[in-house]
Batch of 4 targets.
Target 1
Amino acid sequence: MVDEAQPRDPTPADLTNMTDRQTLPDREYIAEQTAAVSEPAPPAIVAHSDFDPDDVDWLVPAQPEHVIIAEPDPAWPERFRGLEARIRDALGEAALAIEHVGSTSVPGMPAKPIIDIDLTVADSRDEGAYAAALEDAGFVFVLRERNWHEHRLFTNAEPRANIHVWGSDQAEAVRHRMLRDWLTEHADDRELYATAKRAAAAPTADDPELVQAYNQRKEPVIREILDRMFRAHGLL
């Protein structure tokens, strides 16, 4: 194990042998999370950014919905694996990383029954490298957000899934993986987030809303947990 007082950049052999994240210095944990792609600087990883509905280019108009928070389903990981295989078959080596993220990736976490997947490509702006192939595989190109990490979103009808496309230098996918691991290991924050999700979903029981309203209501708790996680890793 590397002396945390004198961190070094991990070698390829280090990255290959990293199996127990609890034993890794925080610098090496970041490297582990970004091994398949570029490594964003810590300031980019810890920076929060706000959603601006005016910056969204909707290719499929958003529809109000009743947000349902389901109890944990042991089938969620298997659904991810099926979707992962479809994406891999469609994109081949253009898919630099395919990760199960969001609440359905956290054991024991209540969630909207929608599989969230982070797909990392070389450059999300180069839609010609992936968009048509994903559409041919049955995914629907829903939106692009040029001013928010050059995010692109595809969806799948059955099983319901969101495929978030990121460029290889974007920090948001790193944040998602770190949060997934943190919630898996910290029951107190897992319960805090579950409570926030149920409270955020409650107003939609009678009046359907765009899912962005639900997301914004729970955002303060997400940031609280993220900041606690970043401090624990020595990033704040």
Target 2
Amino acid sequence: MHYEQSDLQSLIKSIKSYNPNTDVDEITRAYGYMVRAHEGQFRNSGEPYAIHPMAVAKILASLNMDDATIIAGLFHDVVEDTEITYEDLEYLFSKEIADLVDGVTKLKQIKFKTKKDNQAENLKKMILAMAKDIRVIIIKLSDRLHNMRTLEYMTREKQIEKANEVLEIYAPLAHRLGMSTIKWELEDLSLKYLEPNIYQDIVNKINETRQQRESQIQNIIRQFQDELEKYNIKAEIFGRPKSVFSIYKKMYKKHLAFEEIKDLSAIRVIVNKESECYDVLGIAHRFFRPIPNTFKDYIATPKPNMYQSLHTTILAHDGRTYEIQIRTWEMHKTSEYGIAAHWKYKEGTTNKKSKYDSKLAWLREIMDWQKDYTDSKEFMDLFKEEFANDEVFVYSPKGDVMDLPSGSTPIDFAYKVHSAVGNKCVGAKVDGKIVPLTYKLKTGNVVEILTNPNSGPSKDWLKIVKSSQAKTKIKQWFKKEQRTENIVSGRDMLEKEVAKMGYSFNELLKREWLEEIASKLSFSSIDDLYAAIGYGSTRVTQVIPKLKEYHKDYYETDQVVNKPNHVDFVNEEPKESGVVIDGIDNVEIKLAKCCNPIPGDEIVGYITRGRGISVHRRDCSNVKSVNDKDRLITVRWGNNLINHNYQVELQIISFSNVGYLADITKVISECKLNIKTFNTRTNKDKTVTINIILEISSSSQIDTVIARIKNIKGTIDVFRVNS
């Protein structure tokens, strides 16, 4: 079709503008293959589907990406949406292209609209994909950008969902990768759908003042251009309007009206050499009036996303303030395209990362600290914090520059230097003066850390530090150095929460449940789970809901089932439980764990779904809560109960007397009973609560042991536990 050929020629022309050695035949072959693969498929707009992958390829070309990435952009939907396989792409094109498409396909399967646990896990998968090949996320960002450009054809619900994903995940990623052109457009499009009225209001006001503003900017540019020519400096100067989203943030963050925002445009000066940047700065400060404390040198101290430029704010001759950004052409390219600007295109170097790969150290940091966070909310918060725009730049006494999140403390700085420095930190000097460790660092501070080889971090630091790196290192220290204490602390925290909820320890803290929960949270043992709770990487609130789910399933009695509709014969022999059900045979009978009935107790049967008959004490609270009494049936203890053993739980309240536990175990031993489990806890009133599960064969044994324990000095109360 005509539009296909014109699109293809437009794409090839764009690629040739920065990569004259592009393989035109391969691009053409890939384009034709993609069009045939998507033949008969249409987008929500009604347009042929091939328009979308073509648009993605054009975005990648605008980022000056290599041939393999552009071809992968053309193919990014074929494995998921057509019959074409990874093996087809590898055979017909290359393994490199197949791998890129496979990476994007896996990213497309990640859903961020799910609950926090899944959202964090999906984010980890995305970070892993980025670490393998950063081009995968560049393709994904291009895909998301075109989808946002055509979001008008989606339902309102989908528009809100996709726009929120962009602001929470994709725009911060674009920022961290230095891809400002992508970031600005993603943010503006998100605002357009999340706050349509506010967005349109800002756009209208920008348009109303555009002509006047552009005239003012052009006057300043002409004046400054003439001044630079006096010094024989060749520079290109132009105005850059602020994005709608950045204006929105400033309005609502600082509670300003649109008319109160003065810096709607910035002035950019692009020169050929780095030294000329500083020459231009000096000329600007002489020609205009510099505003104090607004100069920032991002050339000497680049941002983590590789951004370099000199920033200064001046008062111009027209009485208005303007920010001036000064940079070289190479710096400008990096500021616009970020990591995408640093892929090699020359023959033999495709897919080889340049020296700028070292700039992705932050990605490896995230890969490191994400392993220590099983708490999904905390991981998501740290991700957002790590990708936040606000940063401070401080210096070591030797002049080394450190970038830290805004709000960082000397402790954050210490861990940025080295984990050993952070762990031994006892104080700090900022600009030569002693400051508290809670001091908020500011750009330009010179920070000196005071250490003590015998010191270690405090858990309170976790409430003070701002950077994810510091939080991770502090938790790692506690994890390694205080494992035993953490296990005890974690178990105690869990037990206290269980007691607070009104459960007995044996009722909720069953070993098999804790083992399963530990495994699901990627711990190799219960002790590892306790330790993680103890040092703070896992919260008790992550564990309790899972325990309650097990408890509900284990002790469930309110289940809808049908009674047996026939009787085979009367069963006079007790089952292994020792219980007889007159009129019913060949059915499984189990003693309920919630109330542990024993011979002598009044009992009742409950027909469960697929698990036979559950036998309860008649005074069991679970039985009392059954709504449909038709599901309760008559059962009785059999006559022959010899060699039957039963479990019963006792709870003892006592004073904290020395030797009291020894007295209890002596009584139980003299009664010839086995102890199955034994738990104690100290109450706020200094009394002690003891829960014991005993193995008995008759109700008389339990009566005897209760009577004897009551006679032990220090006993306040002892009773059999009901559910």
Target 3
Amino acid sequence: MARSIKIPIFNERVGFMKRLVAVFVLVGMLSSSKAWAEEGRVIAGPGVKKSISKNLLEQKRVKLGYFSEDVPAVLSQTDVRLYKKMFRMQRNLQRSQVAGLVPQLQNRELMGHLIAERLLHPNTKAPYADLKKWLDRYGDHSMAPTIYDLAKKRQPHSDKYGPKKPPMVLASVAKYSDPDEELSKEVVQNTRKRQALLRKLKKYRQKEYYSKSIIQLSKSETKDLLGEDTWAEVTLRLARSILNYGDYKRPERLARMVINHTQFRRSEALWVAGFSNYKLGDYERSASFLRRLSYSVPRNSKYFAKAAFWAGKAYDNMNRDSMSRVFYSLASQDSDSFYGQIAAEKAGRKRYWAWGAPSISTKDKQFLFNDPLVRRVIALAQIGEHGLAQDELRLIHSRVPYDMDMSLLALASQLNLPNIQMSLARNLKEQSMVYYGGLYPEPKAWEPRGGYEVDKALIHAVMRQESAFKPDVKSRAGARGLMQVMPNTAKFVRRQQNRPVYSRSALYNPSVNMSLGQDYLKYLMGKLDGNVVQVIASYNAGPGNVSKWLEKNIGNEDPLLFIESIPFTETRKYVKHVLSNLWMYQDRYGSKDAGLSVLAQNNWPVYEGYGTAVSMNQK
């Protein structure tokens, strides 16, 4: 076994004055652009060995809390404590204190990240020279594109060459596309006349001039000008608007126009026709369209389980039990989807999920544990910077073969990087290797301040849908962090509690964000009597909109009909995804998913209490 190596920061012969000078230089390096020329000399320092080991596998393996024995440590426990302290200080703009601690570090592999914390701090305007020199040294880091964009904005006219552009990388480790995405698109010249027609049709739809819209879309010249794909898209968007308006006959007519006149978006058209007829009470005709749809799409299509399930419901309404069982069984084949899980419950099928994770293969360890990027990932995970670790590991997909996905999933699982686990598990699922522990990862590294006060499965179900476990994500609307908390919502929650309001940047802190999201869920549960469907819908669309939908009676007698009749497309999808996530997490954590059986019986599932031991009942 290789012996552990202690790295002296300064030679014993270096006197006190030289040490003091070195510290002052470090202060300048971390807080002023003038010191960048000295950075290499100062960081190395006299007597410092340039590398700990050529082979990480030779280092002593250390069990790091909940890390697996498969993952060797990159940082010593001393460095872990130092880096945690330094990152905290850097975020509080205590730069001189950070510089004073640098000489104590044995391992400098996270210096790029540490300096980037200063350059990207919201209360700092980093000089162009600092940004440029950071890119020269750390251009392979995950935040390099952000720093490059910032440097380009601040590039002076005197610099003809500009900053070094970082290598192009994809934003995700996912390697497969949506099965419902059209593989071929029409290339249509976007003329001014075409743009004007699209604007007119949009105006008609928004002002509810539905008859004018239908007349315009029925003209052959409209389809020729727009192109078949765009024509079908606009026609079905109109059909959905009319359906939300409460008119169920005209949407079916529009859907049949698409079915009969183009190959584009036929799946969506069949769904609109089937659901419109269901709302009209014509269950025979509804079942005909939905049956046709379920047989025409692949099993991993978003329409497969949905169409088969609603075909089963249509047959239920006709008291044709044998046919309903056939289609419920068919829908249950998409086992972890929203409708697949309800269909399995209605068909009386037991659901079994294997929650184990793969292990890192022996042949992959040599490659992974000697890769500088993986070393940074492990080091970041060691100091609790799991968000940064996820960003780093996301870069590796472009240079590893497909057959390494399983080992990468094992690594991400052992380092508690849930976003990467999800992406890699989806890749493996496309290869018929299903790891539910990766598809529905447990974010062990994060929890609300003060612990869980609401069902942990619900918190994680919301996080999975809201941010896919990326703590730094921000929506176009301004929602932030793991549970996508809006600043105004955060302000409302804190004022309800008579507590100080958090800054917007604090919403990216995982524990703060989860606490606010949890508190808002508690508020909604109290307001909506624990009705889990309405709570989830309100979290996305706001309780005011949910109240309006209930007043319009869009499906109050049947919670599934209510969900599928939600006017907002985003909220409609959101509720189904969060509920299916919830049932999967409840199974993973060993809690009862009584809400699933309640919903399968066409009843509203309701939380009886708001603590971690809540159960569900029907309303």
Target 4
Amino acid sequence: MVRTIRRYRDVMSIRAVIWDFDGTILDTEWPAFYAAKVEYERVGLELSFEGWSTTIGTANHRTWSDLLHEQAGDRIDSPELVEQRYRTLKNEMTDSNPVMPGVSRLFDQINELGLGCALASSSPIGWVQRHTTRLGFWDRFEGVATRTDVGRERTKPHPDLFLLAAERAQLDPAFCLVIEDSNHGVTAANAAGMTAVAVPHRLTESHDFSHAAARLDSLEELDLADWV
């Protein structure tokens, strides 16, 4: 396999990995976008791919459903029905997705190298715990921080989630490698004094990751031994 790591700057050796969840461990981002897009199309509207992309990684923004009701007015069904259809389709698509390529190997490598392991997500705890449990990863985390802990306004790009995850796992932020899929996440990791690797997908590949320590095309390219 040809490795296409684009490393932007040298960093100190790491002692722990802090994961993002959505779009990094599991592709939940495309199901969320697609399910919302379907609801927009029901009333003859188009959901902006570019606009959606700017919200990935943070919860500090207006919800798509609020914007849809504002734009569609009387053409739309009740908020409860719209939300039910959205969640049903999003969950069906998400539940059928495998973990992102390279994730399972990296969890094994974390164990082999004796690295700490934590998770920081702008999603609520119920969502994160349900999926990481069914995938068999929940017990791998020594510390977890989610939107439930800090509130929408203090999710990424603020550093709160990463600092709280590190505190709960008793990790030194200066020696943590963060794996992220969004520019908001990389910004938050940097603000927490951590090193961030960006692994974008189709919804975030246009993000500016010049502030990341490296940008990878896939987690399969990441060898943690290069960072310890």
